[in-house]
Amino acid sequence: MKRIIIIFIFFVGLINQTFSNDLIQKAEKAYDSKNYKEAITCYQQLITEGNKSYELYFNLANSYYRNKEIGYAIYYYELARKINPNDKDIQINLGIASAKTTDKIDAKENFFINAVKSNIVNVFSTETWAWLSILMAFVVCVLFFVFIQSGSILVKRISFVFSIIFCIALVVVYFFGNSALNSKKENKFAIILVKEIKITNEPNISASLKFTLHEGTKVRIVEANSDWVLIKIDNGNEGWVKQSEIGII
């Protein structure tokens, strides 16, 4: 009975894999034929079935972009970048799509400083920052051991100087690693998916209008419930939107 179950699971997985490959080929053929709606349908079906990869999100984003749905294109480029943040094609296409958004929001905080910090923090994953911290700490311990045990004045001086340098490097690496971890835990963002949405002062349909936003704009999530989300944009303005009108990254 156990063997039969294993064989059954194997064949089910094989059938699903074959079906997924057929969908991928169908989507690629539709995209090459400029039938972007069909390509979107195929890629979305793959996602519904539980498939998840940056290539899948990237191809879906390209299909949405070609279909002139900028909000959805940016959303899936962002999901692809979340999985593979260092991919150049994702970064380039995301930049091209973002340039077509309507809303140009002036940042309340220092944009240059935040951009530099964000770029440095996102160079490595949180796991890589952790391993770098461990490596730096190990090197510091080795240099300190050499400084204590060596009978040579020259070696003591060299090991002391380099131990100071690596101590500073350890602090810097730890700072950026901790920033990356906090950013991953605390910062949640979303993309406006529809052409235009109304931002209200309360989470209900009859609430007063505060301002409007358009597709593709990236917002920060402050609070969320089942139907409504409190968002914040770069200039500090906040308001409520329907959760169905945004894509949470």
What's a concise summary of this model?
The protein is of the alpha+beta class. It has helices at 2-32, 36-48, 54-66, 70-83, 88-98, 111-121, 126-149, 153-186; strands at 189-192, 196-200, 209-214, 218-224, 228-232, 238-242, 246-248.
Draw up the topology in text.
Blueprint: H1 2-32, H2 36-48, H3 54-66, H4 70-83, H5 88-98, H6 111-121, H7 126-149, H8 153-186, E1 189-192, E2 196-200, E3 209-214, E4 218-224, E5 228-232, E6 238-242, E7 246-248
Antiparallel strand pairs: 1-4, 1-7, 2-3, 4-5, 5-6
What does this structure look like?
- With 249 residues, this protein is α+β, with helices and mostly antiparallel strands.
- It folds into 3 domains: 2-98, Tetratricopeptide repeat domain (Serine Threonine Protein Phosphatase 5, Tetratricopeptide repeat); 111-186; 189-248, SH3 type barrels.
- 61% of the residues lie in helices and 14% in strands.
- The chain has 8 helices and 7 strands.
- The strands form 2 sheets. The chain has a 5-stranded antiparallel β-sheet. Strands 2-3 form a two-stranded antiparallel sheet.
- The chain is elongated.
- The relative contact order is 0.09.
- Residues 7-16 have low confidence and may be disordered.
Sequence of strands across the biggest β-sheet: 6-5-4-1-7
Q: Judging from the principal axes of the Cα atoms, what is the shape?
A: elongated
SS field, number of helical segments: 8
Detail the poorly predicted runs: 7-16
Taken as a percent bin, the fraction of beta residues is: 5-15%
Biggest β-sheet: count, sense, barrel?
5 strands, antiparallel
Which architecture of the largest domain would the CATH scheme give at its second level? Answer: Alpha Horseshoe
Count of discrete structural domains: 3
Question: Helices and strands: which structural class?
Answer: alpha+beta
**Could you please say which CATH topology of the largest domain applies here?**
Serine Threonine Protein Phosphatase 5, Tetratricopeptide repeat
Query: Number of DSSP strands?
Result: 7
What's the average pLDDT? Answer: 84
CATH superfamily of the largest domain: Tetratricopeptide repeat domain
| Measured distance between first and last alpha carbons | 44 Å
